[in-house]
Amino acid sequence: MGSTTPISTTDPSNPQIQHWENGLALYSNFITPTEEAEIISSILSDDRWSGIGKRQTLHYGAHFDYTTFGASEMWTPVPRYLEDLVDRLPWRKEGKEERPDQFTVQYYPPGTGIPPHVDTHSVFGEYLYSLSIGSSVPMVFKKCGENEARKMRKPKRSLLGDSRDEVNRTRVTIKAEDDGEEKWEVWLRERSLLLMRGEARFGFTHMIRGRKFDFDERKGERVRRVGRWSITMRRVRRGGEVGCTCGFPGVCDARIREEVEREEVEREEVEREEVEREEVEREEVEREEREREKEEREKENGREVRIEAEHTPGILTNQ
To answer: What's the number of CA atoms in the CB half-sphere (13 Å) around residue 106?
Structure first.
């Protein structure tokens, strides 16, 4: 992916764990093949799938809202297999109050991608997990620019869509993405757990290209994609926690929203001043019009007096 690809280091206590300086971590073989098969069986036994086209979604705990990119008020009980996963996540070892309570399970048919995005800062905690199940896929990370961040906050953008539309949308987006400087690919192997935190969580977009084949450098060959599941796990910020004070204000939805609100206040102030100015100008025009009409009436009255005097014998003899 280029000279800017960050270098990962292997955890000295566990060779299955890779760390990047920007806060990204990848836990290979986080679950066993037996656990993977059991999770797939549990996923397929749930009949509450929703979605558009072939790409299907399940939500547990708080439901993800694809309009606001936050959490909705809907709630579905968390199944046992997810509770077991949560107890094994890294947040426990690091003493962080980042226990996930929002879970999104998605099925990706072959060729399906996801557009570049940064998960909402203000609504979700710092630790973001993604467990890959069924097959491998490369995920692209790219440093997020301020203009890109603002475009991503538009409601029309959605992470859920038809697989054919997804391929087209990611193809269109790739040209803009390829203009970036700092980006790289991370292969999400089946049964691996991805952890995003710090800069990787708040300052980088992540995406999956919509295509049917990938070149696997580890295997040294082009491989065809097959169906894949992912489980995204987040912690929802609530009450006074909602908001963000991260070190990436240019791409932070909380700061962008504050800026947009300030711009809206300024725009309304400019519009108010413009209305007031137009009102003053209108009143001035009306005042000038009244004075002009008054002068014309006075002139007309003066003409009438002179005409009357001219037709009245003797009225002007002393003038």
So the answer is: 25
Q: DSSP labels for 228-291? A: EEEEEEE-B--GGG-S---S-GGG-HHHHHHHHHHHHHHHHHHHHHHHHHHHHHHHHHHHHHHH
291: tokens are 């004075």
Q: Which fold has domain 9-247?
A: Jelly Rolls (2.60.120)
Phi and psi dihedrals of 238, rounded to 5? Answer: -135, 155
Q: Is the pTM of this model over 0.90?
A: no
Structure tokens that stand for 259 in this block: 């800026």
Could you say which residues of the chain have pLDDT below 50? 1-3, 155-180, 319
Using a 10 angstrom Cβ sphere, with 0-12 exposed, 13-18 middle and 19 or more buried, the burial of residue 81 is: middle
* Contact partners, residue 2, CB within 8 Å, separation at least 6: 183, 184
Q: Find, among 76, 92, 73, the residue nearest to 84 by Cα.
A: 92
